[in-house]
Amino acid sequence: MLEEKDLNHTTDETASSAAKRLKQIIMMWRRILTFGAEGTEAGNFCRPWGVAIARYSELSTLSDTWPFNSSTSASSSDTFTEWFRPVGVGFSEDAYDKHFIGPGMCSNNNRSNSTHSTACSTYLIGVADRSNNRIQLFEFDAIRQTVTFLHMFGDGPGARHGQFDRPAGIVFNPKLEQIIVADKDNHRVQVFDMSGSYLFKFGERGSKCGQFCYPWDIDVCKITHNIIVSDTRNRRIQMFNNLGRYLTHFSQPLDSPRGIAYLSTTQIMVSDFNKHRLVLITQSDDKTVTSSTSLMSTNENNYLINPPQKSTNRQINQQFHESKFVGFGEGSSWGEFLRPQGTTVYGSAVYCSDSRNNRVAHWNRDTQTFGYINRDVVELDRPAGLAAIDNYIVIVDFGNNRVHICQHLVAINGSPFDSQMQSKSELSNWRRILTFGAEGTEAGNFCRPWGVAIARYSELSTLSDTWPFNSSTSASSSDTFTEWFRPVGVGFSEDAYDKHFIGPGMCSNNNRSNSTHSTACSTYLIGVADRSNNRIQLFEFDAIRQTVTFLHMFGDGPGARHGQFDRPAGIVFNPKLEQIIVADKDNHRVQVFDMSGSYLFKFGERGSKCGQFCYPWDIDVCKITHNIIVSDTRNRRIQMFNNLGRYLTHFSQPLDSPRGIAYLSTTQIMVSDFNKHRLVLITQSDDKTVTSSTSLMSTNENNYLINPPQKSTNRQINQQFHESKFVGFGEGSSWGEFLRPQGVSSSGSTVYCSDSRNNRLVCWSKDTQNFSYISRDVVELDRPAGVATIDNYIVIVDFGNNRVHICQRQAFS
Fold it and tell me: What are the start-end ranges of the E strands in 320-449?
């Protein structure tokens, strides 16, 4: 659904500024309403597909007899409302409304002063309730955040006027006061007035011009009022005037056109269901046949476009001669589709239901980039029809027999959410550059890896002349495991991509030929705890050449002798002391090695006393004090030791099952509480009195009492922990929720956590209290475990797939 002002959209911005703007738009969607369930009652659905939306005022002002004015709307018992408002620390609902506005909301957001008749506040939504063979109409009140059932019409299956047989697409034409429906299995289009009264139909089963074979979706041009229909089984789209008279059609290279939408009076976007792509079709005054090129590929596709057949009604006023493909074809990665369905337009972004990937893809016409509305915003099961207006998008959740309304938020200048939007923009710039490892016992392969550590190569080699793994002695090229991905769009060659994206771990000129292997920011040491193989493996990551090389491994087992392991989990480097520190989990101890893997010392044994462990899982070291913290999982506590392994202090309640652990600063520690599905931020305090625990991400206080640490006899207690705060909303898969969080790491003001059972990496900003995600749009994960960050890189252990990913954070230059 495209506004008239969007038809003349200009692209004065540069590519980089447009891309920055797009990333803000992508990341600022939130689900505000869900309505419907499986059933035949009013307001419920059975396999709904199409959806349409229009401003209520555009309809009611055109017709004094508009039958569904507010005074005659359904009673409150017919109101279906469920809404979600992500409110963080200090973000009350009023503050959230105050600082976020959009074109569909009054800028003062003062509900008490808003009237029900505000032009931008109320919308009409129509849903094609396919298997119930009917159309249902609802009123969406954007101010009160409610959806009210209004009216339904149609029955069937039947072929009489006003009856339906599995209707699919639906669109409103407010200026002509029409509801237009693709009556799919009747192979026709039916047109109704706004009360649902039958006006006329056009089309019948067949393959000739003006005939249909399963017409699926439909749209109308708001300028010309021409109607376009996806004639699926005939592998074409057809255009008709507002009276249903055939104008023209477009076929090759379409295979199975499904969703369809006007982008402008001269451009149409079609989803090609079986080919897993979008097709952008452009009208041309030139009547000669031209070739089809691909928008998202460097190779030309030499499909010939069939010129449209002429009709006898002399209404052919538009010809289609050019098509371009959008997307990389079948798949679940960035820019790929799996059975795309409904299509709609919002500003310069095209939205498409990527049905089998259970997400809504959005593609920006200006920057040729993809983004996604996925489970981080709303849970979908085979999304179907879409409709967009103002700052709202309506999504038909086909598999769940319901409809979602999501809102696009825009921050008011000067509000505290400005930094939040910038944070979201930055966090969306991750890309996977390397994956290495596979299941096995050979060097470079893994069996249930868990922990990971990373350090700058230069920090190690400059401290020790005897560092055993210099580049000259690294493994041969046969031991190099490299696979990397570079998302390149139209106008973005690989060189251009390198030119416009830089980070602190890359030379700003990105000239590989002039870069040396010894560049301080170019080479890193990675250590992986290969848990079920009872060993530690070391790799060299060359950021310039984009390669990972196996260096060395040490340890065997299961065993309890010095240097042996029994399912090691956490690992961390201490570059200044040239140490590799390992949580030897099932041996209930911590072992310390030099950088060659030679055993130095151990501390801990099985037990519950101070300094003892019961399945220590993860470990981290403070780069300032060199103190070591350990997540003592089965004892439900974390313990702190000095660099010699001497016990200092511990922190227990309200921890239940501490798993991942990381220093945020010398006075703050972040712990993932595995069974409680949350993060716990622990802060040191000079005050020795017991304080209460408060929640970072909840409006309710949690009055857990924090046990003061037990004293030890070695008089090394130099730090006390007395305050904890919870991060997250608990168990779940939505925004801010966790499902079995594991490894934790931090970089700058951002904390990263492996949300293992949600198969994603959570990014939480300490500054803005905002959540975002590295999910399947960037990298495919199966129960991610350990995480390590340095410079602009993040290393993720893909536990279920027995491999390790390296992702890079990009920043526009």
Answer: 320-326, 340-346, 349-354, 359-364, 370-373, 383-389, 392-397, 402-408, 410-411, 430-436
**Intra-chain end-to-end CA distance of the chain, in Å:** 34
Read off the pLDDT of residues 735-770 as tens digits, 9 standing for 90 and up.
888 999 999 999 888 999 999 999 999 999 888 778
Give the span between the Cα atoms of 539 and 525, in whole angstroms: 6
- What the block records as the tokens of 732 is 């779940």
Strands in 493-641 per DSSP E:
501-502, 523-530, 535-542, 547-554, 571-574, 579-584, 589-594, 599-603, 616-621, 628-632, 637-641
**Model pLDDT for residues 429-457, shown as the tens digit of each residue:** 788 999 999 999 999 999 999 999 999 98
Q: Confirm if 735 and 376 have CB atoms less than 8 A apart.
A: yes
Distance between CA atoms of residues 324 and 344, nearest Å: 17
From the list 406, 412, 420, the residue with the least C-alpha distance to 29 is 406
CA distance 218 to 283: 18
Cα distances (Å, whole numbers) of residue 794 to 86, 347, 806: 27, 33, 6
Of 370, 420, 374, 496, nearest to 19 by C-alpha is 370
Contact 368, 295 (CB under 8 A): yes
Residue with tokens 């030379």: 507
DSSP β-ladder status, 694-695 and 721-727: parallel
Q: Structure pTM? A: 0.48
Q: Give SS3 for 682.
A: strand
Helix (H) or strand (E) holding 95: helix 93-99
Q: How far is CA 1 from the centre of its chain?
A: 24
User: From the DSSP assignment, how many helices (H) and strands (E) are in the chain?
Assistant: 7, 54
Report whether 635 contacts 622 (CB < 8 A).
no
